Amino acid sequence: MSKKILFIDDSRMVHMVVTKTLRPLDVVVLTAINGQEGLEMAERNQPDLILLDVTMPVMDGVEALAALKANPATKDIPVVMFDSDSGKDSIERARQLGALEFIAKPFTGDALVAGLAPYLGLRQKAA
Question: Do 36 and 67 meet the contact criterion of CB atoms below 8 Å apart?
Fold first, then answer.
């Protein structure tokens, strides 16, 4: 059975890149364009993994992460964070809230797959 990934990011371009990169991995990618929409989708769809951008309108990623971890229905879903310009404070706060990984933007498809492999049960190719 395919794993479900919820990708929450306000950039439609990044949505396309992530979806295209993950499609060959036999995963279903659900997308949301802000933290509030992402919270609703996470509760409704119960994804296996959430990819969450830090910098978004409506509700930023750190606020969304705090809400996800405070909700009994979503608190156990693993979360990997993304951002291009987060300071150490945002990264530390996200880790304190339970983010498993922090992937810097821009990222390559290979870096994305390598960063997510442990959470999706993928084996990394030998270099």
Answer: no
What DSSP letter does each residue of 60-97 carry, written as one string? -HHHHHHHHHHSTTTTTS-EEEEESS--HHHHHHHHHH
Which 3 state secondary structure label does DSSP give 111? helix
Look at residue 113 and give its three-state secondary structure.
helix
Query: Cα separation of 18 and 61, whole Å?
Result: 17
- Considering only CA atoms, which of 37, 56, 33, 54 is closest in space to residue 45? 37
Domains and their CATH numbers in the chain: 12-27+34-118 (3.40.50.2300)
Q: Per residue in 27-67, pLDDT tens?
A: 899 999 999 999 999 999 999 999 999 888 888 899 999 99
